[in-house]
Amino acid sequence: MEDTGYTMKDGRQWFVDGWKLFTKNPLMLILGTVIWILLEVLLALLPVIGEILDALIFPVMYGGFLYAIREVDEQRKVKISHFFQGFIDSTKLKPLLILGLLMVFFEIIEAGLTVTLGPFTALILAAPLGILVISALLYSVPQVMFSDSKPVDAIKSSYYNCGRHISAMITIYLFLILFAVLSIITIGLAMIVIMPVTFCAFYISYKAIYR
């Protein structure tokens, strides 16, 4: 694979293109987002186990969302079931759940730090680990969904490409921080647009890197 050397400008363009992709079918992508958020709310009602389940199925939901986005990109009709493709396709479910163990590990570490050191200190200390987890899942999930990669190989590939295109990745992380702030300011309401646009940008970047 040719080293394209993606830059911070390229990273910004991925979000611009992600927005354009989102506008091709905004209603379905927003609907998929709302369903995911409602699922997280329901899981939050379950003490402890709900948070673990939410973390465990994150890659499965992320994979399904990317599947739906690919349908939009290739101008096919999007169905609600596409957002749950990670659950529907039994060959994808197990490896995606294995990837979900990374999220579970992060949640446990963050919870332990919060209890022992307080939320602010925990946030600061857990941030580097959070970046590592995001970097691991960013491209490992689409690799599993679209290329039938094994979980460990997919994680290695994701880390490799995040490192190889670190300048573009910095832009992605900066956008994620900005979006997190906007979400807090709007009491989470902005997430119904921010989340699908972000995933569209991730899909665009995946296509660029793994073309």
UniProtKB/TrEMBL annotation:
<feature type="transmembrane region" description="Helical">
    <location>
        <begin position="120"/>
        <end position="141"/>
    </location>
</feature>
<feature type="transmembrane region" description="Helical">
    <location>
        <begin position="27"/>
        <end position="46"/>
    </location>
</feature>
<feature type="transmembrane region" description="Helical">
    <location>
        <begin position="187"/>
        <end position="206"/>
    </location>
</feature>
<dbReference type="InterPro" id="IPR047798">
    <property type="entry name" value="BPSS1780-like"/>
</dbReference>
<keyword id="KW-0812">Transmembrane</keyword>
<feature type="transmembrane region" description="Helical">
    <location>
        <begin position="96"/>
        <end position="114"/>
    </location>
</feature>
<keyword id="KW-0472">Membrane</keyword>
<feature type="transmembrane region" description="Helical">
    <location>
        <begin position="162"/>
        <end position="181"/>
    </location>
</feature>
<protein>
    <recommendedName>
        <fullName>Transmembrane protein</fullName>
    </recommendedName>
</protein>
<keyword id="KW-1133">Transmembrane helix</keyword>
<feature type="transmembrane region" description="Helical">
    <location>
        <begin position="52"/>
        <end position="69"/>
    </location>
</feature>
